[in-house]
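FW: tagging you since you asked about this chain on Friday. Here's the raw sequence from the shared folder, copied in full. Didn't touch anything.
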Amino acid sequence: MTEKDQKMLSMMYRFIDENQQFTEESLVAHLFESVHFAFDNFQEPFRVADSWAKIAYEYELATIALRIGSGLKRQYPKLAKSEKVQNAILQVFYDEKYSVAARFGFLDTMCDAKMDKQIADYVRSIDEIPTDWGYTVTRVLCTRKIGGFSEKVRALYQKIEHTRGEADTRKYCLRYLENDSKYKKF
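HL: got it, structure written out here
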């Protein structure tokens, strides 16, 4: 394992370390430090065949997103409500410097942080739910019970209705369409 790999692992572990005492400022600073380190140091091609990640930093950013989401849910849930923390998550999610594949894990982070309005704003801002990320979008909408997007979910369902390998996405589409009227609207 190289020195940069060890440093990245250490940075990611801090997000879920039970002994870590993050404040708003230190969590935001660590998030940006981790994201910038991953982007600056992992530009080589990702070496896993048939992976959604094409460049190594995409995988690292997705892992950071999952780790900070897990930390917000388990170790420091009060920080999930922090406007500074939520703005930092959104800043990374919308920063076009990073590829869509790299940023999309932060949709799960928004789900973990219960950022329902921001999730709804994102889904409202796109013309259609991308097939590549349909599973994540529909799962997050169902998990957080965010309504008002049945047309977009129906369009996604019609695109993948007979596609192999999309059973879980179809399941979430159908669950969403069945329950949309019960979900909260933003």
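FW: The mean pLDDT is 92.
HL: agreed, and The chain has ten helices and no strands.
FW: great, closing this out.
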